[in-house]
What we know:
The structure holds two protein chains of two kinds.
Chain A: E1 3-6, E2 11-14, E3 19-21, E4 23-26, E5 32-38, E6 45-50, E7 56-59, E8 62-65, E9 75-77, E10 86-93, E11 101-103, E12 107-112
Chain B: E1 3-7, E2 10-13, E3 19-26, E4 32-38, E5 44-52, E6 55-58, E7 65-70, E8 73-78, E9 87-95, E10 99-102, E11 106-110
Parallel strand pairs in B: 2-11
Antiparallel strand pairs in B: 1-3, 3-8, 4-5, 4-9, 5-6, 7-8, 9-10, 9-11
Amino acid sequence: GDSVTQMEGPVTLSEEAFLTINCTYTATGYPSLFWYVQYPGEGLQLLLKATKADDKGSNKGFEATYRKETTSFHLEKGSVQVSDSAVYFCALFRFQGAQKLVFGQGTRLTINP
Amino acid sequence: SQTIHQWPATLVQPVGSPLSLECTVEGTSNPNLYWYRQAAGRGLQLLFYSVGIGQISSEVPQNLSASRPQDRQFILSSKKLLLSDSGFYLCAWSRTGYGYTFGSGTRLTVV
């Protein structure tokens, strides 16, 4: 079945550092790919998405490119801020049937000033 | 516009007590509805989903059940809570063309 694997956390960086959170997936066909963010004590917010191969999703300085050849959707940001501290979830989604989101295990990111 | 309401935000319940969490969606019809759980330090696990009134699919055998008595209402229940039921419960809805939207979550602590 479909699955998503994220890099193990927690990840701790200094402010203005470069961020990469790896995400790979296993799925048949052409799912859509998402990054969600969960700030402390809150629910999930959609950060960015890509619906087909080579699409680049971007939002708030974060980017991720849908790479079908490597089945990856790595999250990157050039210069992180303390306010980016959160848990990040990679997920895949199919627009058929029950339309279930399949999540990775989440990566906790802490940014130190 | 579409909105999703989930309550309560926080709940502390003793072991063996019943549970009822409610989720309602406004501004759309015939949505797909979902219950996810996030246990402490772990990822998000899909518990139940529903594609229509009275249609419930369970992803993981557990101490919980779900019901959909109305088109835009999704209820998560338990007759007797276990310590392992503690976690953060998220309701979500989706519909073709609208993507996926999460509620604000309920943090359940079983003591």
